[in-house]
Each structure stands twice: as structure tokens, then as C-alpha cells.
Amino acid sequence: MRIFDPHIHMTSRTTDDYEAMRDAGVRALVEPAFWLGQPRTNVGSFVDYFDSLLGWERFRAAQFGIAHHCALALNPKEANDPRCAEVLDVLPRYLAKDGVVAVGEVGYDSMTPEEDDAFARQLELALRYDLPVLVHTPHRDKQEGTKRTLDVVRESGLAPHRVLVDHLNETTVAMVADAGCWMGFSVYPDTKMDEARMVALLAEYGTERMLVNSAADWGRSDPLKTRKTGLAMLDAGFAESEVDSVLWRNPVEFYGQSGRLALEPVAAGAVDVATGSSVLRGER
Ligand SMILES: [Zn+2]
Prior knowledge:
Bound molecules: zinc ion
Number of strands: 10
Low-confidence stretches: 268-284
Number of domains: 1
CATH class: Alpha Beta
Helix content: 40-55%
């Protein structure tokens, strides 16, 4: 089973996790920029974080034969903090970099006017930099938040197939399917979504435009939920090619729209940690 985890926060995981993921079949991943738990007080904290996603974390993943890519953005939660507003000014120069395959996570947390503004501005940046977008949907008021998300995407002029709407469940999947966007599901150990419910959703909606991720971070989460979902699909009678669509070909197709996927893992030691550039591929 080859696996591409389209949404996982490796910054908060250990080398044991990288090893277990490699053994489970994970060969590639996308790490979206997110809220780190402790509020950041200035733009410099984001610059260092973005650099670490492009450099250090990519280097760590390469040591385990995993191709690391990232999505960068000002996350919805911190969009409410005026001390972080400047992030939107430094973001453009990061979106031009090779390891960045999407704008994300953007979207809503509490659906405030500040979140509206940051969301719309970052959708504009996605258009300008020709990147797909990873959209987080709120855990509270999920239906209303998802509906509003789809309205904002429609108004932005972005084509729906350039947008992945994530953290969906049984109450929100249909409207995203109808809108033509990609559908993301975060499978968790004991909340929000599990393997059995995921398999039932795949049986109902099919495997097209469907993405499964572990969204693993510093909370209780499991970086092997992708593989566990694949095994549950096989148990339920799905073909291996359908598992491959969900766990590999779909994320490759979605993030491939950036033109920047590098699926041969960068050899250990080949990444310049200071700049995040790959010596092998001659990137800047
Ligand atoms: Zn996330």
C-alpha cells in the first residue's frame, strides 16, 4: 500500500512516527501551516516556522525516505490576532518557493470579520501564484461554516477543482461534492471521524475527489490512520486500485496542480537546512 498523507503536522511528531509511517507505506506528505497552540506574538515567529517547514522538516522526512511538501498560510485562528496581520505581507515571497504545493490551511475558525478578510485575501494569493488551496472547516457550527466557505470560494473566482475542503463529515460532504471541490476527511482516534464511518462515506459517495488524512498533530492523533483506513476499505470489499486512488492517486492529482510535487524523496543530507533548498534538484 503506497500512501500520500495530504494533511499532517510533522512538526509535532517524533522520529519514531516517521519510522512507523515509512514502514506503513507512507512515501509522501503535505504539512500545512497551522496554529501551534501557543499564540505567536509577531511575524518573525511565522517566518521561522515557514522556514522550518521548508527546510528542517523536509530534511527530517527525507531521512526516512518520505517526500515532504508544505502548504503555507496565516491560519484562521491567528487571523484574529492583529499582531499576526503582517504575515499576509510576507506570504507572497514564500508562495513562490518550490516546496510549497498549496495555500493552506485557510478558512474559518469562529467566522469573524477578520477571518473573512484573511480568507478572501489568501484565495486571491492562490489565484495569483497559481496554487491549489487547502481549506480548514470549523469544528463548531460545521454546516454553517462549510456553507459559508463554499460561498467565499465561489466568489473568489477559483475553480472548484483547485480547492480541497477538509475536516468533512456526514453532515457536510454532500454540499462539497455538489460544489465540485475536493473532499478531505481527517480520521482521528476517538472523535470527529473514524475508519468505519470513512468506509461508509466512500461506499456512498465513491472514491473520486475523496482524500483521507491523519491530520496528526500535538493533540491525541495517529499518523497511521491513513493505512488503517486503507485496510478497513479492503476489509469492506473495496479493490486495491480503489484504495490506491484514495491514498495515493487523488492527493497526487490534487497537489500536482501546483506543478511542484517532487515524489522521489530527497536523499538524506541533500537538503540545505538553512535555506530549505534541495541541492539535488537545484532549487532556490
Ligand atoms: Zn491541520
